[in-house]
User: What shape does this take?
Amino acid sequence: KAGVTQTPRYLIKTRGQQVTLSCSPISGHRSVSWYQQTPGQGLQFLFEYFSETQRNKGNFPGRFSGRQFSNSRSEMNVSTLELGDSALYLCASSWKGTGMDEQYFGPGTRLTVT
Amino acid sequence: AQKVTQAQTEISVVEKEDVTLDCVYETRDTTYYLFWYKQPPSGELVFLIRRNSFDEQNEISGRYSWNFQKSTSSFNFTITASQVVDSAVYFCALSEAGKKYGNKLVFGAGTILRVKS
Assistant: This one.
């Protein structure tokens, strides 16, 4: 079974630009969650989608948004990039999305904002 | 609000030593789940173990074991006979139960484990 894939793996953007990151979950998984990892703040939950609906959102500004498609693939978008958005963005998928699920993480997208 | 604390920032051991990683959590929920994940240098988080709030039985799985105590809100993880390949960052995490909450993991800050040969 193929794992969670994230594209691109690395990205360099300039302040003020916008970026879209993509996540393909494990086949059959309907829940996709996004996390931001930085040295200062650690791993923080961004949002979670299940069957194309956002069910939960972390404490991030509106510049961070996401969506999920009917095939469960998900994208997250960050508009008007700031230097502080530089981070490793991790995507995770699970089958039921009930909180007890073992989540499978992708390798992440490392975003650098200059 | 949920919170997970991993007080140990970094631990160094010599191969074959046993090592215990500490985790203390806070939650008002009566039903919750606790996890340990490992993050090797490649960056991908790998699931290790899961425990629900109703099951305090401690178990051993291979070289891994865990000690869950609701009375002290602790969920400690032990690696027996550590190996160099165990070197990674270990995260303790907490989630609420139920579909309406979805899959939101609250992570601790992580503990860097260095196993030297």
